[in-house]
């Protein structure tokens, strides 16, 4: 992301917050009415109306993916890949792992990765030695 895009995103966020502030009284009334009347009787219908209201503000509610807690939920190949590739070698580890080097943390998150092609330590984006882009499989 460059500076211009960051500025645009900030302006969009300020605009969205302004819209929310102008409609907050209406939103409070709608949510209170929906939850009071339908939460127990028909939660799916209540959620549909709440979701539609939130969508009008550009707000989307997503459920986080459930973590795998049992090896039976993974294929043998996935278990082997996690065991061999992840630095911790724990196929049930709940931490995020870099797709380039398998360390705890996200790809491009500031740690040094080891290039899968030439084994050079680098930032994970583009290897300075061989030019391979991080996160791409070996050629």
Walk me through the structure.
With 139 residues, this protein is mainly α. It has a domain at 3-56. It has helices at residues 3-38, 43-56, 76-85, and strands spanning 113-114, 121-122. Strand 1 (113-114) and strand 2 form a beta hairpin. Helix 1 (3-38) packs antiparallel against helix 2 (43-56). The longest helix has 36 residues, at 3-38.
How would you briefly describe this protein structure?
By secondary structure, the chain is mainly alpha-helical.
Architecture blueprint of SSEs:
Layout (H helix, E strand, L loop, with lengths): L2 H36 L4 H14 L19 H10 L27 E2 L6 E2 L17
Antiparallel strand pairs: 1-2
Oligomeric state of this protein: single chain
Biggest sheet strand order reads: 1-2
Structure summary, number of beta strands: 2
Rg calc:
23 Å
**Uncertain residue ranges:** none
| Shape type | flat
Content of β-strand = under 5%
Alpha-beta content class = mainly alpha
Note the total helix count.
Answer: 3
The helix/strand series, from N terminus to C terminus, equals HHHEE
- Write down the overall mean pLDDT: 78
N-end to C-end Cα span: 28 Å
Q: Biggest sheet: strands, sense, closure?
A: 2 strands, antiparallel
Q: Fraction of residues in helices?
A: 40-55%
List descriptors.
139 residues; mainly alpha; two-stranded antiparallel sheet; 3 helices
């Amino acid at each position: 992301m460059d500076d211009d895009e960051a500025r645009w995103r900030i302006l969009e966020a300020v605009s969205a917050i302004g819209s929310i502030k102008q409609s907050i009284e209406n939103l409070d009334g709608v949510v209170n009415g929906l939850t009071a009347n339908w939460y127990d009787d028909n939660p799916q219908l209540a959620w549909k109306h709440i979701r539609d209201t939130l969508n009008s503000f550009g707000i989307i509610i997503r459920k986080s993916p459930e973590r795998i807690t049992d090896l039976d939920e993974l294929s043998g190949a996935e278990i082997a890949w996690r065991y061999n590739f992840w630095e911790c070698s724990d196929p049930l580890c709940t931490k995020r792992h870099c797709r380039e080097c398998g360390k705890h943390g996200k790809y491009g998150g500031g740690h040094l990765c080891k290039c899968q092609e030439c084994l050079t330590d680098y930032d994970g984006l583009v290897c300075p030695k061989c030019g391979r882009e991080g996160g791409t499989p070996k050629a």
